[in-house]
């Protein structure tokens, strides 16, 4: 009986000690007409750490804590900006070789800089938060 009680207490300590205070955050990045941004990364900057998440073809994202701190991000205030949203077209050369063309930005340039994006988010404790973002085209 003593060993069972000790085992139970050890499990509780491990579960409670292993929990993080991170908030599961996700959302979509779309244009005003509702079409999704189909490529890129979203960045949440707390001033001390930046958390990133890939934007998938449906415009969905979910940033994650780094360095083994588990899924989600810590509560706090964040500046948000996008990176990697440009598409690089392939261009066929005269000799039938394929070359990369100049990048074509798919999102208004102001959203690709933390100083000019104007996007912010406050993540409160509580387990889950959805934050949808609407950005302009260039």
Could you please describe the fold and organization of this structure?
It is a single chain. The chain has 138 residues and is mostly beta strands. Helices cover 12% and strands 31% of the residues. It contains one helix and ten strands. A hairpin with a 4-residue loop joins β2 and β3. The longest helix is centred in the N-terminal third of the chain and has 17 residues. The N terminus is likely disordered.
Topology readout:
Layout: H1 2-18, E1 24-30, E2 41-45, E3 50-54, E4 60-61, E5 76-83, E6 90-92, E7 98-100, E8 119-123, E9 128-130, E10 133-134
Helicity range: 10-25%
Order of helices and strands: HEEEEEEEEEE
Task: Give the N-terminus to C-terminus distance in angstroms.
Answer: 69 Å
Count of discrete alpha- or pi-helical segments spanning 4 or more residues: 1
- Our estimate of the beta-strand percent is 25-35%
User: What do the pLDDT scores average to?
Assistant: 84
Class per helix and strand makeup: mainly beta
Low-confidence sequence ranges: 1-18
Radius of gyration: 21 Å
Largest sheet entry: 4 strands, mixed
**Tally of strands:** 10
* Broad shape: elongated
């Amino acid at each position: 009986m003593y060993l069972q009680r000790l085992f139970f207490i050890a499990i509780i300590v491990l579960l409670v000690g292993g929990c993080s205070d991170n908030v599961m955050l996700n959302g979509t990045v779309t244009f005003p007409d509702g079409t999704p941004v189909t490529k890129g990364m979203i960045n949440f900057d707390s001033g001390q750490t930046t958390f990133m998440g890939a934007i998938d073809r449906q415009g969905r994202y979910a940033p994650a804590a780094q360095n083994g701190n588990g899924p989600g991000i810590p509560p706090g205030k964040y500046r948000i900006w996008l990176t990697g949203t440009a598409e690089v077209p392939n261009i066929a050369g005269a000799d039938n070789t394929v070359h990369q063309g100049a990048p074509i930005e798919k999102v208004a340039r102001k959203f690709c800089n933390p100083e000019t994006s104007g996007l912010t988010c406050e993540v409160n404790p509580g387990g889950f938060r959805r934050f949808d973002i609407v950005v302009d085209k260039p």
